[in-house]
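From: lab user (bench 3)
To: helpdesk
Subject: output format question, protein + flavin-adenine dinucleotide

Hello, I'm new to running complex predictions and I'm not sure whether the block I got back is the full result or only part of it. Here's what I submitted:
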Amino acid sequence: MVSLFPLVPPKTMLTSFHSSPSSTIFKTLKPPKPSLSPKTLILTCTGKPSPKPKSRATMNAPKPTSKNRRKPSYGTSRRSVIKKTFKQEQVMFTTPVSDDPLVAIIGGGMSGLMCALNLEKRGVRSTVFDTGMHGLGGRMGTRIIDPHPLVFDHAAQFFTVSDSWFAELVDCWLEKGLVQEWQGVIGELDIGGRFVPLPSSPPRYVGVNGMRPLADSLLSETCMVNVVRPCWISKLEPFNGMWHLSENGKPRGEFDAVVIAHNGKCANRLLASSGLPLIARQMKRLELSSMWALLAAFEDPLPIPGGTSFEGAFVKGIDSVSWMANNTKKLLHSQSNGPHCWTFFSTAAYGKQNKVPQENIPTATAERVKAGMLGGVEAALGLPKGSLTKPFYTRVQLWGAALPTNTPGTPCIFDPHGRAGICGDWLVGSSLESAALSGMTLANHIADYFETGGARPEEFAIGLDNEFQPLEGHDIGQFPGLESKKEINEAQAYQLAS
Ligand SMILES: Cc1cc2nc3c(=O)[nH]c(=O)nc-3n(C[C@H](O)[C@H](O)[C@H](O)COP(=O)(O)OP(=O)(O)OC[C@H]3O[C@@H](n4cnc5c(N)ncnc54)[C@H](O)[C@@H]3O)c2cc1C
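Helpdesk reply: Thanks, we reran it on our side. This is the complete output you should expect:
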């Protein structure tokens, strides 16, 4: 098993980590030499005035020959994206970094938000772009359905804390009333209704009103972060020493550096023609699981045999369900009659078997998945087939790019020549904690790089060559510190089903 934060220093090193986290982390690594493949074309972006932006390919590139000629169009299939990635030129910014640099952060999930927050702490301005229609947060989604209201965390459910840097941050959120400890019982539920509670330590945390409100409030006290939402950045172009961003042809500003704080197909497409082949190559190595989510509201409490009212359970032995949680109890602390809002997630295997385009789920598939998952809930609870009361509200959603299954094991990736970095959960794990640490680390790394004025780029290359390793954890990610079933005192187990 890959250790969770292989590059985060042990506690004894944390004092220096706090003062300059990135430099401590990176001293333990040998910064890889910028290894541009021999076939990679290099484009120097100097910032000399030019009357009118030309395309990157024509700015400084060698004359097209039969060998280096770029194809006019690559389409968007995975295959064509890969092909294009290997052919693109490497951008080399050579102008000194401005005294008051501005960073574009593409993605407003936990990692992008933490990156923005920590850039501000280092005196660096940023703009966060995010596609979210309802708010920031990405995979920290919460759905509130009026007029009841029904509340569902429909991706991240809760988190634990293992890193002391993250612990400080969580203490601060607790003080501000942004997060709270989840006191409800959670455990492992085996097919047939055998429930084994997990020990109450380590503490589990949830957003006070769900995960999305937490994301939306993280930047509330900042003054150097601009948020642009909803906005889908579709193009990155280096020109005159700056990155030019656009959304379907609409200019979205010029920036001294860019941060890719999202992953998956969208990031592969964006990077495929950006002039960042090394970053694009690492992104493309990432593999992601797919998972179905079923949000369901019931008039009555779920008939949990044995009288235990657990609030969350990792479900074992059932393909269609890997996790179930009672949002009403978790978020509203309601012990009563009201509607009972549950989030159910499938296993990754079930997600793969039933994969469809997530933007366009066929009704028949949605119905089949809903029935399959509700059947799984029945089986998990040890209820007779067909006995589960129908929920009065359901919503089925596919997380097509749910969780990373491999990792390069580096807290962030940075290409100093291209002045571009990547942060995200997948760089060290598959949890909110890993996403937060990645964003914080990249921010500090970029701020350190800016302090040199970009003068010694070779010292700041990080993660560009790391090999990927498989990532372990639950289907819904990692919960550092949470005991695995093997370590639970079996004496605590009790049979719920009669
Ligand atoms: C079903 C599910 C359950 C989970 N449960 C838990 C859990 O209980 N505990 C836990 O710790 N973790 C959990 N996770 C994992 C956790 O949600 C992630 O690790 C974390 O949220 C990742 O944050 P991120 O910033 O790396 O990426 P994301 O949250 O994915 O953020 C990326 C953002 O970038 C935006 N974006 C993408 N492309 C563009 C573009 N071109 N322009 C602008 N914006 C763009 C996206 O819309 C998104 O908002 C779960 C994940 C899933 C899918």
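A quick orientation on your result: Residues 106-112, 129-132, 138-140, 155-159, 231-233, 261-262, 266, 270, 291, 293, 345, 399, 402-403, 424-425, 430-432, 435, 476-477 surround flavin-adenine dinucleotide (CB under 6 Å). Let us know if anything else is unclear.
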